[in-house]
């Protein structure tokens, strides 16, 4: 009754590329760069109610784009090269979206529409040190600072194509604007 067609199919296009650079600056110091891009588009329809009878049909169109960059500088130092170390920077930038609809049981006039958009940015700086104090004892220390930013808009509309007064009326369920967060994470291991 909604007039929507929901084919049972899955169309996925996925691609990406990565470029790695390794540079041995000296015998005891190395630089690495990892640059990557990934992307996918996915459109799919299905009977999503989990029963053997045709029921709730949904259609989704999802998109994802991401870029990452990491720089690492690592080496060994000390009189007998007892200290291994790595420092680096990491960056992540992604855009996600999903939109679609569901027909609440194909024999009724109820429907729901959705559109979700999310943007993510993340960067981090890190360092790790491993000191070989003796042949049987090593001491490790490390730190990482991470900054996350996430903006999301989640939109839901449900409705009914039946005449007024019959079934559910149309209304917006969720529309929640932008949200941002910044976090500082740390971890340690005691032996």
Please describe the structure with a list of short key phrases separated by commas or semicolons.
191 residues, mainly beta, 7-stranded antiparallel beta sheet, 7 strands, 0% helix
Largest sheet: 7 strands, antiparallel
Structural class: mainly beta
**Spatial strand arrangement across the major sheet:** 1-2-3-4-5-6-7
Helix content: under 10%
Shape: elongated
Would you mind describing this structure in some detail?
Strands 1-2-3-4-5-6-7 form a 7-stranded antiparallel β-sheet, with no helix packed on it. The protein has no helices and 7 strands. With 191 residues, the chain is mostly beta strands. The model is unreliable at 166-186 (pLDDT under 50). A hairpin with a 2-residue loop joins β1 and β2 (29-47).
Layout of strands and helices, then pairs:
Elements: E1 10-26, E2 29-47, E3 57-77, E4 83-103, E5 110-132, E6 138-160, E7 171-175
Antiparallel strand pairs: 1-2, 2-3, 3-4, 4-5, 5-6, 6-7
